[in-house]
Design brief:
Layout (H helix, E strand, L loop, with lengths): L2 H4 L12 E3 H12 L3 E4 L6 H10 L2 E4 L3 H15 L3 E5 L3 H16 L3 E7 L15 H5 L5 E4 L6 H12 L6 E7 H5 L1 E3 L21 H13 L3 E5 L1 H5 L3 H11 L3 E3 L19 H7 L2 E5 L18 E6 L13 E4 L2 H11 L12 H22 L8 H11 L4 E6 L2 H6 L11 E2 L10 H11 L4 E7 H7 L3 H6 L5 E6 L4 H11 L1 H4 L10 H7 L3 E5 L5 H13 L4 E6 L7 H4 L6
Parallel strand pairs: 2-3, 2-4, 4-5, 5-7, 6-7, 9-10, 9-11, 11-12, 12-13, 14-15, 14-16, 16-17, 17-19, 18-19
Antiparallel strand pairs: 1-8
Helix pairs in contact: 2-3, 2-7, 4-5, 4-17, 9-13, 11-13, 15-23
Length: 574
C-alpha cells in the first residue's frame, strides 16, 4: 500500500460529535505540533491512534521492527528540524524501540516515542505486555511519563514535545494505557493546545559580556581555529557559521552533522589537519560538540591554548576539560553576535592570519596526496578507501549521504564531503549499527526530490535491512551500497592486535552473503562488484534504477585486511 492509498482527507479543526477518543486526541496534538508522519509497528494497544491519524491527514509508515520506527523518527527530525514521532505497542514493542531512543538521546535529536500499555483498570495485575516502561526509559529521555486520563492526552503530548526542545534537544516518551486511548470524553473537557501557542522560542542569546570577550579574543588571535559540530546543523546555523569563519578569516573544521556546513573547495573548509590545528592554535572555538571520545575528552587540544565553548546545553560546557569560558545559547545567534561585536576593529585581525591558513592548506594537500594510493588502488579484493573515493566522486549537490557501520563511517569520513548542510548522516556518538535503512527511509520521505545514498557495512545492513521492503512498499526508493567483507571488521582488527591471528577471528566473522540477490528478492535492483573499475558503472546503473522508482543495492566485495587508522592504532583500548 502506498502513502497515497493510506492518506485520507485531513479533517477540520471541528469535531463531528461532542465526544472524542484518546487516540484521536493524540492525532490532534501531533497535528498541532506539525507532525506529518508517524513511524510505527502495529499492536492492539495503539490502533486508535492510527484511526485518529487518518482523520488528521498524518501519514502512517509501518515498518518491520520497532527499532526501525525509532531510528526513522530520529532521522526525520535530523533532516527536517521538526520533531519525529514513533508509535509502538507495549512490552516488547517499546523495548525494541529503546536502541533508537538511546541513539537519539546521545545525538540530541528531538523525537517522541509513544508506547502502549495495559489498561489502567488492570494495573499491576499482569496484563498482556505490561512492563514498567517509564522507569526503563527515564534515564535515556528528557521526559518520560504515563498519561493518566483521556482528558490529559493532548496536553501531555504537547508537554512531551516542549521537553524535547528544552536546551539541547532530545527524545521524550509517553506511555498511554489502552483504556485511556480507547475511552471517549466530552470534547470540551479535553485541552488541545493550539499550534504556536504553547512553546517559547529556543533561540536564546548568550551573555553579552562573554560575546564581547570572545570577539576581542578572536580579533587579537594569531592562529585561531573553529570546530563546528552537530549543533550547527541542529540550530540551522550554517549561514552564520560560514559568515563567521569567512569574515574573520578563521580555518573551520566540522564533525558529526556539522559536515557539509562548508562546501568542498571553500577556502575556509579544512578537513585533514584538525590535529595540527589543535596543536598549534592559540585560540580554539568549539561549537556545538562535547569533549567526548571523538575529541579525546578534550586532551587533543593544545594545553596552553585559550579554549572557548559555544553550546546549547550548559551541562556540556567545560565537561572533561577546563576552558577559558563558555557561551550557552542558540548557535546561529551567538555566532552572529560575536561577529557583530568585532565590527569596527582593524580588519578583524583577518589579514594577518592568511599565513596561518596557507600553512594549514599546504598540510592539507600533503595529507591528501598521502591517501591517494589507497583512494586510487586497483587491488582485488577492493580497497575500502577506493570505495570511499568513488562514492565522493559520485555524489551530487543533492545527495544525502548516510554512513552505517564502524570502519565504514571512519573510512568514508576521510573521503566523502557532502555538498550541502544536512547532507551527512551517521549514527552519532552512541555508535549504533543499523541506522542506515531507517535514516534513508526518513530522509527520502522528508526530501523526495533528493537522492539518498547509504553506505553500509555488511554487518550493519543485516540488523535492519529487511525494511528495504518498507522503502519499496511506500515508494521511497533509496540507493544502498554495501562494503562487504563478511566480518565485523572494526572489532576483528582489535581482537587480532590484542590476541593474535589465531584467537582474533572469534565472534566477528560472518558468512558470505550475495546481497544483490536480497535486493532483487524484494523487488529492487541488485548488482555485485568485485573489480574496482566496475564501482562507478554499477553506481550509475543503481542511480538510474532509483530514478525509475525502485531501491537499489550495490554489493561491493572489499578487502577485510584494510582498516581505518583509528582502528589500526587501537585507540579503542587506550
Amino acid at each position: 500500500m502506498t502513502l497515497a492509498e493510506t492518506k485520507q482527507k485531513p479533517g477540520s479543526t471541528e469535531v463531528a460529535s461532542e465526544q472524542i477518543s484518546g487516540g484521536h486526541l493524540v492525532a490532534k496534538a501531533l497535528k498541532a505540533e506539525g507532525v506529518e508522519v508517524i513511524f510505527t509497528l502495529c499492536g492492539g494497544h495503539i490502533i486508535d491512534i492510527y484511526d485518529g491519524c487518518l482523520d488528521e491527514g498524518i501519514d502512517i509508515i509501518d515498518v518491520r521492527h520497532e527499532q526501525v520506527a525509532a531510528h526513522a523518527a530520529d532521522g526525520y527530525s535530523r533532516q527536517t528540524g521538526k520533531p519525529g514521532c514513533a508509535v509502538v505497542t507495549a512490552g516488547p514493542g517499546t523495548t525494541d524501540a529503546i536502541t533508537g531512543i538511546a541513539n537519539a538521546f546521545r545525538a540530541e535529536s528531538p523525537m517522541l516515542l509513544i508506547g502502549g500499555q495495559g489498561a489502567l483498570t488492570q494495573h499491576k495485575m499482569g496484563s498482556l505486555q505490561d512492563l514498567p516502561h517509564v522507569d526503563i526509559l527515564s534515564p535515556i529521555t528528557k521526559f518520560a511519563a504515563t498519561v493518566p486520563s483521556t482528558e490529559r492526552v493532548a496536553d501531555m503530548v504537547s508537554m512531551a514535545f516542549r521537553e524535547c526542545f528544552n536546551g539541547a534537544p532530545g527524545p521524550s516518551f509517553l506511555e498511554i494505557p489502552r483504556d485511556v486511548l480507547d475511552r471517549k470524553v466530552d470534547f470540551k473537557n479535553a485541552r488541545i493546545p493550539k499550534a504556536g501557542h504553547y512553546r517559547a522560542s529556543t533561540k536564546m542569546l548568550a551573555d553579552t559580556d562573554d560575546i564581547q570577550r570572545l570577539a576581542d579574543l578572536l580579533v587579537q588571535a594569531e592562529r585561531p581555529c573553529v570546530l563546528f559540530g552537530s549543533q550547527t546543523w541542529t540550530s540551522r546555523a550554517a549561514d552564520e557559521a560560514k559568515e563567521f569563519a569567512r569574515t574573520l578569516n578563521i580555518p573551520a573544521y566540522m564533525n558529526g552533522s556539522g559536515r557539509g556546513t562548508f562546501p568542498p573547495g571553500d577556502p575556509h573548509h579544512f578537513h585533514r589537519t584538525r590535529r595540527m590545528a589543535f596543536e598549534k592554535s592559540d585560540v580554539i572555538v568549539i561549537v556545538g560538540t562535547p569533549f567526548d571520545f571523538r575529541m579525546g575528552y578534550g586532551r587533543r587540544l593544545r594545553n596552553d591554548a585559550t579554549v572557548v565553548q559555544i553550546d546549547l546545553d550548559y551541562r556540556t560546557v567545560g565537561k572533561n576539560r577546563d576552558i577559558a569560558f563558555g557561551l550557552v545559547g542558540d548557535i546561529g545567534r551567538v555566532l552572529a553576535a560575536v561577529l557583530a561585536a568585532t565590527t569596527g576593529t582593524v580588519d578583524n585581525g583577518a589579514k594577518r592570519r592568511q599565513g596561518w591558513l596557507d600553512e594549514l592548506r599546504e598540510a592539507e594537500h600533503v595529507a591528501y596526496e598521502k591517501l591517494m594510493p589507497s583512494f586510487k588502488s586497483d587491488n582485488v579484493p577492493i580497497n575500502p578507501y577506493r570505495v570511499a573515493y568513488e562514492l565522493n566522486e559520485f555524489l551530487t549537490e543533492d545527495t544525502i549521504y548516510i554512513g552505517d557501520g564502524g570502519d565504514v563511517v571512519t573510512i568514508t569520513a576521510q573521503a566523502v564531503q557532502p555538498r550541502q548542510p544536512g547532507h551527512w548522516m551517521d549514527p552519532g556518538p552512541l555508535g549504533t549499527l543499523g541506522v542506515g535503512v531507517p535514516f534513508a527511509m526518513a530522509a527520502k520521505y522528508a526530501h523526495p526530490e533528493k537522492e539518498v545514498l547509504c553506505y553500509f557495512g555488511d554487518g550493519a545492513f543485516t540488523l535492519t535491512g529487511w525494511d528495504l521492503e518498507t522503502c519499496q512498499r511506500f515508494k521511497l526508493p533509496i540507493l544502498g551500497v554495501i562494503g562487504n567483507n563478511s566480518a565485523m571488521n572494526q572489532i576483528r582488527c582489535g581482537q587480532i592486535n590484542k590476541y593474535g591471528a589465531e584467537r582474533g577471528n572469534v565472534g566477528n566473522l560472518l558468512g558470505d552473503v550475495d546481497f544483490e540477490k536480497f535486493a532483487e528478492m524484494l523487488g529492487g535492483h541488485g548488482e555485485v562488484v568485485r573489480e574496482p573499475d566496475q564501482i562507478r558503472p554499477a553506481l550509475d546503473r543503481a542511480r538510474e534504477a532509483v530514478k525509475s522508482g525502485t531501491s537499489a543495492l550495490v554489493n561491493i566485495w572489499v578487502d577485510r585486511e584494510e582498516w581505518a587508522p583509528g582502528t589500526r592504532n587501537q585507540t579503542m583500548y587506550k
